[in-house]
Amino acid sequence: MTVLDVANLTKIYGDACGECVDNTGPSVGDNQCPVCGSVVACADVDFQLHDGEVLGIVGESGSGKSSLAEMLALDLDATAGDARYHAYDGNMLSADYQARHELQNQHVGMVHQHVQDGLELSFSGGGNVAEKLLAAGWRHYGDIRDRVESLFRETEVPVSRMDDATETYSGGMQRRIQIAKAIANDPGLVVLDEPTTGLDVSVQARVLDMFRGLQREQDVATIVVSHDLDVIRLLADRTLVMRHGRVIETGLTDRIMEDPHHEYTQTLINSVI
Amino acid sequence: MTDGRSVVPDAESVDDLLDGVADDGLAGYNYAYLDEHTKREVRRATLKAIALPGHQVPFASREMPLARGWGTGGIQTSLSLLGPEDAFKVIDQGSDESVNAANIRRLASRTADVETTTDATDASVIQTRHRIPEEVLDDDQILVLQVPITDPLRRVDGSDDANRRRHAHKNYSKMWVALYENVVEYGEIKLSSRYPVLVDDRYLMDPSPIPRWDVPKLDDADNLCLFAAGREARIYAVPPHTEVEPLAFKDRQFQVERFPDQACANCGSEDTFLTEVETDDGDRRYACNDTSFCEKRRANPDLSKAHHRDGNDHAWGPATDPSVPDGPTENSEGGERE
Questions:
Q1: Which domain holds residue A173?
Q2: What residue in B sits closest to A97 (Cα-Cα)?
Q3: Does one domain contain both A158 and A225?
Q4: Which of A34, B18, B137, B232 has the most crowded CB, counting CB atoms within 10 A?
Q5: For residues A212 and A228, what is the distance between their CA atoms, to the nearest angstrom?
């Protein structure tokens, strides 16, 4: 089953002159329009995401990965495009505030690159996770506590730290709390934006391992955005390679890693290995 | 009215000047102090507030002869309602005799020519700060509450802009998280005043700093409640017979203040909201906060809170009133904390 069907997704920052998309991209070698100066974060992105599938989005800094992730998590308005989510009737990118909130609460979980975008640092870790449940209408304190506790266990955060302020947590714990929050309401889609950036290597491995376990167990469709090819290799079934705001290559992750077709992808893979 | 200019040449001191206008009173002012346009504007905001229970309606909020934050919203609302037939009562934290209450009452009686009273059952308009009377209000009475902070969400987010958007979409999850954390910390919801309530299952409302004791009185009341904030220039309302539900969890219920084994030192009441007072000797004792009802109880200790309504047909306030059999239930789980 197709969980998400995205067509023609475009984000332009600035007052677009109408020819921005034609004036930018890999063929030009830039993502800033020479006519009006607008930045084309991403343009004409098409892909489908299937049940239980993990889609990796990889690219250098400024290639439009995060804009793409935020638009799909409905945190950022798209300039143009069409995204069909299986449990929503219509283009979810043009959903009104109310519908968007319902989608974010019930269907789309997001793990932000910056902790302060995803968590209220003055709230306790448990409170941050509970917010999702409360927003979805949970009103029984005991049930909420139980659910938060089991989410802490699943994401391997010490339950004893549940009631401490989130700002006292380590970076790895904050990342796990974000994951716990993202999966709290059993969403159909999870978007991870740079899930391991800023964590040391051993913590990275454990966060990824934990998430891979959860993802398989719950069979949730996932989009992972990362500049780190190892993260993509570990998590993603299929991969999009982005550059200058365009998708330049798509394919099974194994194929991309072993037999990259596009010149840029080849450089990318080689520079890592 | 004395022509002010003619007084000045003869005056030798400020006292002389004041003597010169002593008999003028408030002659020359419009009826009920405010001009008719202002009153009409306040009434319009009031009507809109009644039409949208719990929604904060902006109004112009004029300069008043006392500082904003001292009841200017309440005064403007009261004065726009009062007519010569009305009886006006002003309460300041349960007391009719505080300076502010007495002055507001005097302003109304001088400018609006209304009768004033301290008896809650006689008044047609009651302006109050931080209390709702113990005696049950009727459908022909209007309660005007003075409000310092209009938005309950400001507890959790300082941005009024973001909060207005939350109200528009009934998105109150942040307030719920604050309550959740409150229970985590204390085992029960411990908010002493300004307890957030959901009005008519739609708008989250700050009931003004009334104690939790008074919050149940707002639910399905016979009377109209108006909330007015002069500093913030907002009016909101709970119309009669509107559902007002304090936010609480299914297993952590809303609770009123408890006064275990205490009775009013003056009248002996055990079913009223008590405050701890320190006597001149340094002793501490509990006394009724609502002084006018306390006086009635002193004369008649068995007086029901609904004595003027034949004593039966009401449900007002916490279950401690013996004449209310089924009030909000006390929750035993948090009972170990006092």
A1: 119-186
A2: B169
A3: no
A4: B137
A5: 16
